[in-house]
Amino acid sequence: MRMAPWWLFLIGLVVTFPSSGQSQTTNLLPEEQNTIDVFRRSSLAVVHINARQRLALKYEDITPKSGVGTGFFFDREGHILTNFHVIEESNQIEVVLTDGRRLKARLVGTAPGMDLAALAVEVPASDVTPLSFSDSDSLAIGQKVLAVGHPLALHNTLTVGVVSSTRRTLDYLSPELEDSLIQTDTAINPGNSGGPLLNSKGEVVGIVTAILGDAQNIGFAIPANFARRVIPDLLRMGHPYRPALGFAGVPLNRYLADMFGIPLQEGFLVEEVALGSPAEAAGLRAGERAVTVGQQTIVLGGDIITAVNGQTVKTMGEIARALLAGRPGQKVTLTIYRNGQFLPVEFFLEPMH
To answer: What stretch of H or E contains 271?
Structure first.
């Protein structure tokens, strides 16, 4: 039998493969096509961040610390959102765009306890495709989410999962993020930090912030709604406005209420009020009787805060989030329970020092 020249087989292979690929593309399931579309659109906004700490010595420059992370454009002015821990202690930040361009970034604002930071790069507005934010309060457990980032410096990596839970807490973050983090099983690794967690529309529902090191597929993201509140302050002041009210306490539950005969089962029990604080000036009352239960000491007899400006609150996190949009000089009204009555306590927010 006569054999065809070897190069004809190669041509046949070249001709055949595109046809096969086209067939596969047209046979994609709608869910698969959605994943591909979201990645193609969102990857244009996602950037690779190289953060370094360079020290200038007498005879040489050294880089004792360096790290990588992810960020994304959220406007056409060249502003990028990422995690604070990605750029922490660095004094040289480089951003790598999807097309490979490397740009120097300047630090615009930071919120260390909230693990957020805003950067800026000089780039034409026409070259920027910013991501939009979604309403993260509407997230449902089981909802599909996608993460685009640079895990272990692997540029533009896509992973897909679901919302595993909401209202999670990480102890090292500020009270504003208490009971508010998104938990996801989307694969997240070092280098994903600061990247977007997206819904099926390609909108940002969260900012990837952490994983549990001794577990698999347990990652956390800062809710988009929270980030949206903080971003204007980062751009305008360089830090979020966090008024110090000067009180501390514990959230109530029915077990504490039953044990100590407290008439309310929900609310925030004020245990301490700092001298000279806005809370003291407003007349907020601290507790008087310290009772130890197991490993916890609870100070009883203080006011119980049930609302801030008419918004029901039960925890310090909810109180802190309610005040996040406040401004110096703004009046705040706490609804408290004292001696069988609900009373208003008013005070004015002070500037940060």
So the answer is: strand 268-273
